[in-house]
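Bench notes, afternoon.
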Amino acid sequence: MKLENLGYTEKFIIGLDLSQNDFNAARVITVNKESYIISNGEKEFFAKLTGNMLYSAESPEDFPTVGDFVLFQNFEDDSLAIIHKVLPRNTLLKRKSAGKKVDYQLIAANVDFAIIIQALDNDFNPKRLERYLAMTNEFGVEPIILFSKSDLITKEEKLKIFETINSNFHKYQILSFSNFDKESLISLKQIICIEKNLLLNRLIRCRENNLA
């Protein structure tokens, strides 16, 4: 696997002068407070931030989050990576942190599609779904809505839920499925494969444009 398979294109480093630095690019796959796991598509590295990034950060958005592409250097025989820079983001999902202070918690960066799953049982919460859809709309991420446990409600009830969603928001891709309905599981697999292929085609076009 290469870094391009993780969504990386040369547009992330357009305008950056890397000639004087031995930097490599990687994608953040795990965040644990001030430590990270990053991948260059072939290998994973345990990573820390430079002191400059730690002490010059003015908000949570200045720190890497899952999905970010970063520039890093290897040390100690590749057992430690130091992150020097977060590359410009295409999208950034975030939510307000709990408490009176107005601050944000980062969820993920460079996200093309967000799969929102809710069960159609007693735990179904339309207001919660609306919050998720509002979040994806605000940050330019395309949502795909999946309703599980569709066998627990009637077709009329499902239709009413779909109509309510589409009347309050845009027309979204919505699918209800159940472990007891093989056809719905086949449809679910097809949706995931289609979105994966669309994303790969986008990456190919970006790659071709950068090389043109």
